[in-house]
Amino acid sequence: MDPELEPFVPLLPRQDLTDPVAARAKVAALAASIPAPDTTGLDVQDRTVPADHDVPVRIYRPKDAQGAVLWLSGGGWVVGDLDTERHWGARLAAGSGAVVISVNYRRSPENRFPAALDDVYAVLSWTAEHAAELGVDPDRIAVGGHSAGGGLAAAVALRARDEQGPPIRFQALNQPALDDRQDTWSQRTFTDTPLQDRATVEMAWRHYLGSAQATPYAAPARATELSGLPPAYISTAEFDPLRDEEITYALRLLQAGVPVELHQWPGTFHGSQAILSAEVSQRQLAELCAALRRALADTTG
């Protein structure tokens, strides 16, 4: 364990998704106790994207932004909302220079797969259609997310490719949940890791899928064809049940001809970059922002 992270481990709450309502309240209270992020230089606006189910979004717009990223929150498809995700949104916008569109997709188990994916795809289509209003280039739209949100980002990239939907320039997958089968070495081994362990992952998938069989749009690791997907940045944590499925997905993307930047962060665990005082957390955030900035840069000049 990274020596700057290790002292925090005994203080971290154990994530328990058994009772979704209680889990949401706990995460919301924790997020509310943290000082609001610095939004200096950002225009922050709440909007509603019209769709079959209207989707709330929060837009973080830095000055002179040219690209945009749809940012999808973690929380096992169960917890989290625009308020709990505000730190990600503000920091990514300030660090990447991109318009960040934080998506309040529907949560499980009340709204199981594919509700969340449908919401994200609707926001992707809306972003492409309203690019001029948002002040961004419609050819410079990325998708990204943390944990369950990273899995959703990978899934929407698959769906957009298959349906010839809006072009996606880049996918930023931060510790993404990609495989419901839980049959990797890290899934079998990390049964008691901080913040997230095998049991938590299993419960999240159960809430998300119910009794339905997973498809590649639910669990992107099940996709048999990965060619034609947008370039990816994939970040993994050493002590994370999800680690090996993420590394395998990165290798499969490479083998399918998709450019990939993969970074395995030693000494970290799932979600540890929330401990902002640690130097490794600061590097993780800076690298994610830099990857988005490079991917969305104007290369015509």
Commentary on this structure:
This protein has 9 helices and 8 strands. By secondary structure, it is α/β, with parallel strands linked by helices. It has a single domain, classed as Rossmann fold. Strand 5, helix 5 and strand 6 form a beta-alpha-beta unit. It is globular and about 45 Å long. The N and C termini lie far apart (44 Å). The model has no long low-confidence stretch (mean pLDDT 96).
Would you kindly provide a brief summary of this structure?
This protein is an alpha/beta fold.
Task: Using brief descriptors, characterize the structure shown.
301 residues, alpha/beta, Rossmann fold, 8-stranded mixed sheet, 9 helices, 8 strands, globular
Give the end-to-end Cα distance, rounded to a whole number of Å: 44 Å
Note the overall shape: globular
Any idea of the CATH topology? Rossmann fold
| Strand order in the sheet with the most strands | 1-2-4-3-5-6-7-8
Rg from alpha-carbon coordinates: 18 Å
Major pleated sheet: 8 strands, mixed
- Note the beta-strand portion: 15-25%
Number of helices: 9
Report the CATH architecture: 3-Layer(aba) Sandwich
Oligomerization state of this entry? single chain
CATH 4th-level superfamily: Alpha/Beta hydrolase fold, catalytic domain
- In CATH, what is the class? Alpha Beta
The number of E-state strands comes to: 8
Percent of residues in helices:
25-40%
Specify the structural class.
alpha/beta
User: Which stretches of 5+ consecutive residues score pLDDT under 50?
Assistant: none
* pLDDT averaged over residues: 96
- The sequence of SSEs as H and E is HEEEHEHHEHEHHEHEH
List the domain count as a whole number: 1
